[in-house]
Amino acid sequence: MAIDTATAPATATGLDPVPREAGTSPAGEVPDLAELARADGVEFILAVFVDLAGKPCAKLVPVEAVEELRDEGVGFAGYAAGLLGQQPSDPDVMALPDVSSYTPLPFVRPGLALVHCDPHVNGEPWPYAPRVILRGVLERSRKLGLSLAVGAEIEYFLVNRDEHGTLSIADPRDTAAQPCYDARGLTRMYEHLTAVSKAMNSLGWGNYANDHEDGNGQFEQNFKYADALTTADRVITLRYLISVLAERRGMTATFMPKPFTDRTGSGMHLHLSLWRGPEPAFPDASDPRGLGLSPLAYGFVAGILEHASALQAVIAPTVNSYKRTGAVSTRSGATWSPRRAGYGGNDRTHFVRVPDGNRIELRGGDGSANPYLAAAAALAAGLDGVERALDPGEPGDAAATAVRPELPPTLLHAVEALAADPVVCGALDVAGPGVSRYFGDVKREEFFDWHGTVGPWELDRYLTAF
Asked: N or C: which end of the chain has fewer CB within 10 A?
């Protein structure tokens, strides 16, 4: 919920607002992975990729084998790794490192580094790999002369869970009715928050704010925007860092959208902007609607709104996601979750918020979203609006938004919307057919697995009701 400058241009002409990526030279050259590791005194490298659910998978590679990692990758049994569209009989997934993503992690363990990888099977990029999917959709935008910049807001709770499974917030003093931005609650978590902040800044990510969010035990940590692939890599890395550093202090960090019924859920708001080379494509000071957006930007917004229901299956991909978007109230008085596919100005009730003419904020996503898939699906939806010159209509306040279509009330509804949407399905299928159907089937099964499980609500309501 921080006041976000995540995708405002940092300079008049430059797309990249952050220092050079870890793993690149000042001139932008990509050096050798072995040279980087040895120069940093690295002893082990986490070779990381994520499955469709966003689970980080890795092997720990000793520096003595870094040349093999660089040249051949490292092998995984894809079926065992997670949702990768494989069966036990399928050949190995080979994770090939993207050297530009090399990230030293001395604040996690001395001598440790991480590199994000592109999964391949039989020498070809694996179409079920989220990083491969995002690369494919980004290539579509490049053919239109456009690139996507993304900023991501990372919200999470710090909790404890006892031997009976009962969840509680890690800070027992965090009980205020409206805890958002509370200085005392923020200070009590100083060691954890500053450790994460220092880690981000040591990597050149540009951490610019850390705050207590609207729920008791909830926090947000922000970093500057970058190109879509870099930001998605950083979201995965940051979730890992936050989790590991929280565990070090005896806490659990959860990005679960709605861990508590009566408290605000955790979103993952995406700030999106299109660029033509070094020039931003969204701003237009002559905008008659007063939001400072260009016709191209309005087309992008219209595309996102048109595909909003299908998008939710990707950016809010769990059963629990719809406890967040379906909430009607919280202890603090507001849910901060959109319920309809509307847009407007600097108003956080909208599905698409326009803080200024430099960017739009997509507010439907949550902490369970896979950042690669979320960026790919949002880009595909927006580009559809650009290519078809769609118009989103007039921006509205909360009353005007009330006439907009409602977002899906459950994961099952969202999956059905996805199945009926060729544009969002096409984003998931960009590297090969069948991915969107596989993803939808998995999520449909997830819904029915939850639906078939008897929980406390049913016992409380029905046990002695008849």
From this structure: C
Longest dimension (CA), the chain: 74
CA–CA dist 342, 361 (Å, integer): 12
Distance CA 22, CA 40 (A): 12
- Residue written as tokens 């940093």? 40
Give the CA count within 13 Å in the CB-facing half-sphere of 138: 20
Are 158 and 170 contacting, i.e. CB atoms less than 8 angstroms apart? yes
pLDDT of amino acid 4: 46
If we measure between CA atoms, which residue out of 114, 83, 82 comes closest to residue 97? 114
Name beta bridge partners: 46.
60, 114
H helices within 215-294, ranges in order? 228-248
Domain extents in the chain: 34-122, 136-460
Distance in angstroms (rounded) separating the CA atoms of residues 428 and 156: 27
For 34-122, CATH number out of 3.10.20.70, 3.30.530.20, 3.40.190.10, 3.40.50.300 equals 3.10.20.70
CATH architecture of 136-460: 2-Layer Sandwich (3.30)
DSSP 130: H
Distance CA 221, CA 209 (A): 6
The H or E element containing residue 455 is: none
| pLDDT one-digit tens code per residue, 219-257 | 999 999 999 999 999 999 999 999 999 999 999 999 999
